[in-house]
Design goal:
18 helices; five-stranded antiparallel beta sheet; single chain; seven-stranded mixed beta sheet; alpha+beta
Amino acid sequence: MSLQRKRMIVLFALLTVWAGGVVARLAWIQLARHDHYVAKAARQHERTIQLTPLRGSIYDARSRLLAESAAAPSIYVDPQAIRNVDLDAAALSRIGGIGLSEEALRDRLSGSNEFAWVARQVDTGTWDQVRALSIPGVHSVEEHRRVYPNRSLLANVLGIVGVDGGGLGGLEHSLDRFVRGESGVMTVIRDARRGMYLLDADTKGAVDGYDLRLTVDEVIQHFTESALEQGVRSSGAKAGVAIVMEPHSGAILAMASEPSFDPNDYGRYPQSSWRNRAVQDIYEPGSTFKIVTAAAAVEEGVVTPSQLVDCGEGRIDVAGVTIRDHGGHQYGIISFEDVLVKSSNVGTIQVAMALGPRRLHDYARAFGFGEQTGLELPGEAAGILRPVDRWSGVSTASIAIGQEIAATPLQMLIGTCVIANGGLRVVPRIVDRVSDENGQTVYEPEPIEPVRVISERTAALMNEMLKAVVDRGTGAKASLSNHKVAGKTGTAQKAVGGRYSDTLSVASFTGYVPADRPRIAIVVLLDEPQSSQYGGEVAGPVFRAIAEQTLRYLEVDSAQPGERRMRIERPIRIAATVEAPAGRTTLARGDGGVSR
């Protein structure tokens, strides 16, 4: 075989081996590693962006807008397409709506990834300025920003929405499943020149959320917030709560917390101001709880409004614990109605001891204390009502005057409504319905029948006593000129270091109006007021301001009250024989004496 032929054979063999290697490599890439390289190519040329849906709007009871979503472009960058990082970062930093420093922008524009956010949910003017710069690799995608046109109005109830479109508090969180909608996706592809193009075939549109309608009335909410803010400021209190409710249906017409915040820019406020104190904070109700004690005693036949009660020298010893009427008052023998009018601790405890711990506990539970109300708001507290077997010897006396028990302001208002509506405990509601874009109802809270707690007769007797509290007792500053008010004051000392403070208190007033045909029930609470500790002094005027404006707005006609006579019966004298830990003494403040 010639040398030339041998060389040809060797060359052919080498070419065959090389071709076999190429084919093997191609087979490896195309078959064995196909999915890997397809995914790698997609990562280099495609980007999937989440599309947020248009969040449903929120309206008040009369279809006035409380929250809506507005178009807000979000700006992003493909760092691989940026040609001059320093120049482009400097140009972007001069646009106020971006909100990032030149150094921060330089980091985002020079990153190794193929996607980075520059600014989320900016106004259209900011995007117009960015687009005018014509920076390669800087693009936008349409998102939506939550807008609250009334700023802080109802903020603690409505809550907040994060930049990713999810509710983070309030109704925005608890009903997020309805108002948020369904997210979509958008795929963009980059060509050889690093231009970005929408890939229509891989785009899934977002589904908008449903609209939410509340029982709250925007105008009554404004009255409530204004009066509460004024009350907090004038009294020097550190916080406050006010709720307005329709006592027969449980519909909440207003719910205010102070301090509040602007949910359009919630990041500027401390998280403590986001709290809805009406359902999340608990407190010892103090003398307002005497409504429950009195109603239970009347219902059980332990006492009647006209029956005399011996309040003695203004003090009572219960199992080694001395409890006094405030201010050194010595009321002597007075009617049970006057026990409530003067807010006598001694008289209330006398009656409670005759009622007994089991019945007091059961009525407190029936009035709604110690359990959540079920309102469609997140973080609702259940309050504190311990089982009877965990009560000490002095617990009956303490709980009767609103100590050793904790409640939310909403629970106290529901208990008040039991008297206002004739003896029924209603379930509060703040959501009227959820509807689609055509106005068709897609969700409506299931109505819950009220539960009878006391008889209509007992409620009527309690109504007369609560009217007397305002007419000639501690609630005088809550009275109205054109309408009869029924209610009860409360001044609960705050526990500090295991003892009740002489200077820190929670002042409150709870009541309803017009007393004989109630349209609204209101609770007002001021935390640590400085001008006066007494509920009648600082919370009563707030109640009056809210009630006056609301009744005028609702066009409720005034009515003249009737008169009645009392029948005098034998006085009650109860000896306390239960035992408590030795050496313990407390001074229960109550609200004794006429409000000053």
